[in-house]
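Chapter review: from sequence to fold.
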Amino acid sequence: MAKKSKIVKNERRRAIVARYAERRAELKKIIRSPASTPERRAAAQDELARQPRDASAVRVRNRDAVDGRPRGHLRKFGLSRVRVRELAHAGQLPGVRKASW
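The token string follows.
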């Protein structure tokens, strides 16, 4: 089980990313656009640099929804490989069966 502080910090980061996502996308579009002037591009880069570091989506870690395990995360289930295995063996994941071929 991950520390509660790590789980809370990650959730806080998700909220910050969501809050800044729209403006961040606009700024990146201005920076990438060949039609934008150098002054406008520089202003967009400055504004982007002034945003909090946690506003970047790459700082969010995918964690197990049950216990917060950071590694072995399966996006389809939102769980770690360990938790998926436990729940699948218990028959609690709909549509998941043991492989046989």
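Two observations follow directly from the output. The CA atoms of residues 5 and 100 lie 41 Å apart. The chain has two domains: 1-60, 62-93.
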